[in-house]
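Lest this sound abstract, we let one protein speak, letters for residues, whole numbers for local backbone shapes, and leave readers to judge:
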Amino acid sequence: MLKKEIRQTILRQLKAQDKERKAEIDKSLLEQVLTSPEYREAQTLATYLAFDFEYNTQALINQTKKDGKVVLVPKTYPKSQMIFTEYIPDELEMTKFGIWEPKSDQAFNKDKIDLIHVPGLAFNNEGFRIGFGAGFYDRYLEDFQGETISTIYPCQEIDFQADSHDIPVRKVFTYAQRF
């Protein structure tokens, strides 16, 4: 399957998720992140402001702030350029893609970010991801030295061949059903 087809398939599945089940999975993934050494050791967490069909990052943002850590969110620019800036809820604006972004152009220094929570649509078992196709994260992560994690639903685990420019996420948290 081509990346474009994988994107379309996974997007359909994400949008069709049962809301209660999704909330249960989000809670389980949040627990995994919060107890991970990557999170515990980080003082600065960069995450994203999610679409409603993606992992709900708001609970992670809230807990990170309660834990006294700095929370950063992305701001995008033309030519797939991206920065992270401090998360200030009252200083966000809606983009043409329907996502909230900071109004600020004040970039946080990349080498001061401890952990980036990376979004994506599909992930293979080596941590490579298929995003929305613009390449923002692959470009940003090229020379990033800190830790990277992702939180995904079962439908997002898929086998595909990574491209040479793809950057893998170091740790992917998945939902394991408990019986």
In short: The radius of gyration is 15 Å. The helical segments are 3-15, 19-35, 37-41, 57-66, 136-141. The mean pLDDT is 93.
